[in-house]
Amino acid sequence: MKIALLSVFYPYRGGIAQFSAMLYRALEKEHQLKAYTFSRQYPNVLFPGTSQFVTKDDNADKIPAKRTLDSVNPFTFVKTAKEINAFDPDLFISQYWMTFFGPAIGGVQKKLKKGTKRISILHNVIPHEKRFFDNFANKSFLKHNEGFVVLSDAVLKDLLSIVPDAKYLRIDHPVYNQFGEKTERNTALESLGLDQSKKFLLFFGFIRDYKGLGLLLKALADLPDDFELIVAGEIYGSFEKYQQIINAKNLGNRVHLYNQYIPDDEVATYFSASDVCILPYRSATQSGITAIAHHFNLPIIATDVGGLKETIEHEKTGLMIQPDVDELKNAIQLYYTENRQTLFSEEIKRNKKDNSWENFAEKVIAFAEEL
């Protein structure tokens, strides 16, 4: 099958770029592919992080994507569609994760040749942080698809609230496997300059309001002093309100901040150093962090919001709680006092075998062929 993929790819970085690269590598084994990405993803004034692009320190997969689409220039919507039509694909697959891109990707889809099947992998439909243009953007995008791939029941519910008769495939997020092997805990802690005798919790990924870092900091303050927290990820917005909690609760020596984008070849260090990954989200659809944690067989304690419970089995691969400081504190203490790490890690190993990128790709193609 000839397949055109439109998403964020190298030289851009981030979770969607990683997802897209893994999907590309799985599909190229059996199909003829061409990848298309942005000439401009965000105008700089709208981007909340430090950089949209990989750096020389990032060990990124250099997918050979053509940079044609400017998210805010309608002329490039037509240009990109012409490029794709010249390839004459049987199937067009896009990634959709933010309503900001709805008009651009929808504008490309609208101009594709008849006979090209159009499907999208939906990471989010109704965003965590709502904006005035969300409804317009969703309608601009969703109506130009024959089918959708959804990664959680929460996203499926959002999709069907807008397109009740949508044709869809519901499938779990594959386990990321591009970050290398887990290293010995003390070796990882030594490389980070951390005390090997402490208990380490991990908060990983972009720091955004809906991810609930403040909740975790308050829970940490109620735990004994041998509990410490690794915060590894780039800040989207201001860190000031979290710093105020750290100062007010005297957590300066117990919170270890690595506030930058974490390159792929450094991810293993943080997950290997930690005893448990914490997702204290206030809202969610699904999280790519679960796919990284499961790659390293690291259990998760998460709040029961959105679709998180669909990839974390309570009392089997992790613990699910309500977004409450006391519940989070109690869950963390239970995890350690009853030595749940070994039990949960073994269950993760058993469960993840079928959740490969190759299986994911095969199911997506089978779904597309049935449309």
Work out the helix count. 13
Radius of gyration, whole Å: 21 Å
CATH superfamily of the largest domain: Glycogen Phosphorylase B
Q: Give the N-to-C terminal Cα separation.
A: 15 Å
Read across the widest sheet, the strand sequence of neighbours is 3-2-1-4-5-6-7
Reading off the top of the CATH hierarchy, the class of the largest domain is best stated as Alpha Beta
Topology as H/E string?
Answer: EHEEHEHEHEHEHEHEHEHEHEEHHH
Kindly name the structural category: alpha/beta
Strand content: 15-25%
- Compute the number of structural domains: 2
CATH architecture of the largest domain: 3-Layer(aba) Sandwich
CATH topology of the largest domain: Rossmann fold
Keywords:
single chain; 371 residues; alpha/beta; Rossmann fold; 2 domains; seven-stranded parallel beta sheet; six-stranded parallel beta sheet; 13 helices
Descriptive overview:
It is a single chain. The chain folds into two domains: 2-174 and 356-370, 3-Layer(aba) Sandwich (Rossmann fold), CATH 3.40.50; 185-353, Rossmann fold (3-Layer(aba) Sandwich). Helices cover 37% and strands 18% of the residues. It has 13 helices and 13 strands. It has helices spanning 15-27, 74-87, 102-110, 134-142, 153-162, 185-192, 213-221, 240-248, 264-273, 288-295, 325-337, 340-351, 357-370, and strands at 2-6, 32-40, 65-70, 91-96, 117-122, 147-150, 168-170, 199-204, 227-232, 255-258, 276-279, 300-303, 318-321. A seven-stranded parallel sheet has the order 3-2-1-4-5-6-7, with helices on both faces. A six-stranded parallel sheet has the order 10-9-8-11-12-13, sandwiched between helices. Strand 6, helix 5 and strand 7 (168-170) form a beta-alpha-beta unit. The mean pLDDT is 92.
